[in-house]
Amino acid sequence: MHVVAAALIDADGRLLLAQRPPGKHLAGAWEFPGGKLEAGETPLAALARELDEELGVAVEQATPLIRIPWRYNHHELLLDAWCVTRWRGEPRSLEGQALRWQLPIDVDQALLAPADRPLLQALRLPKSYPITPADAPLVQRDHWREQLAAAIVHGERLLQLRLPLWPRDAVRELAADLLPLAERYGAQLLLNEDIDGARALGVGVHLKKAQLVTLAERPLPWRQLIAASCHDAEELAHAVALGADFATLSPVATTASHPGATPLGWPAFHALAEAAALPVYALGGMGPSMSREACAAGAQGVAGIGGFWPDS
Ligand SMILES: Nc1nc2c([nH]c(=O)n2[C@H]2C[C@H](O)[C@@H](COP(=O)(O)OP(=O)(O)OP(=O)(O)O)O2)c(=O)[nH]1
């Protein structure tokens, strides 16, 4: 079943949510306006028809957001989500459904239809995900504190502290130092691998491939991000099963940090990202300027080391 769903975003960045009416599948859950494609209909035509029928608005501008394959008990669906940023008419409830406008950050994901959680993450997450270089020595502590702070001030909203040469406590200390600034700017920090450290600090964690397969359930609450390093369909499926918020998929191109690895290339990346029920960042040989190309291949954005820091 192919279902289109619209994230209507207003000029203040608020999102329109609708409540599924009694008697329908997932009654009471909050969702994105939309519905099933009719025979012979294109996704955009279905989106226009559903928004006209449900809200009385005419779509003027829609761009692809994410495609989520999902399985409920009795049926499978492809939730095909679009960002609608321009429309004519004032959205109103034409089918008796409750409506509300909320900033994506304020939406309680527990109240959403389960397949909509990755959609909400796709709306919340930025286009770039800088990662600290694995070979940074501990003596560069001050330098990396400054780089991370400058990146946050310059607009980065999602940053991974991956510093395997440092003692864990030193990485935790760095995260704790940066936390007030990150909170002020609405940026999220993720520790690589260190679940206990993330739990103690209230930040996110980025799971390594080896950790991913050993975990049976989400190791942190929903308000702390969980990311996973993935390289194939099986690892992506595991990340989804675990309830990870997003994944990186690598290597897309050849990269200095993993010279022997065979690159996926964009076509294989696209197929894997689209089949995964979560936002996926392209990693490996990426630069911040490649985010448009990556998004065209179904990515949430780009992740990387070189080129992502103010001094590089
Ligand atoms: N419209 C919509 N459906 C969603 C969302 N999330 C989600 O899991 N679904 C599921 C619920 C349903 O199983 C399916 C869509 O069915 P629907 O009942 O909205 O479709 P429709 O508007 O064509 O309704 P109907 O003619 O069958 O009454 O997709 C969402 O955000 N929007």
Automatic annotation (TrEMBL):
Cofactor(s) listed: Mg(2+)
InterPro entries xrefs: Aldolase_TIM, MutT-like, MutY_C, Nudix_hydrolase, NUDIX_hydrolase-like_dom_sf, NUDIX_hydrolase_CS, NUDIX_hydrolase_dom, ThiamineP_synth_sf
Domain Nudix hydrolase positions: 1-125
PROSITE patterns: NUDIX, NUDIX_BOX
Catalytic reaction annotation: 8-oxo-dGTP + H2O = 8-oxo-dGMP + diphosphate + H(+); 8-oxo-GTP + H2O = 8-oxo-GMP + diphosphate + H(+)
EC number: 3.6.1.55
Molecular function per GO: hydrolase activity
Record keywords: DNA damage, DNA repair, DNA replication, Hydrolase, Magnesium, Metal-binding, Mutator protein
PANTHER family named among the record's database cross-references: 8-OXO-DGTP DIPHOSPHATASE, NUDIX HYDROLASE FAMILY PROTEIN
Family: Belongs to the Nudix hydrolase family.
Protein name: 8-oxo-dGTP diphosphatase
Lineage: Bacteria, Pseudomonadati, Pseudomonadota, Gammaproteobacteria, Lysobacterales
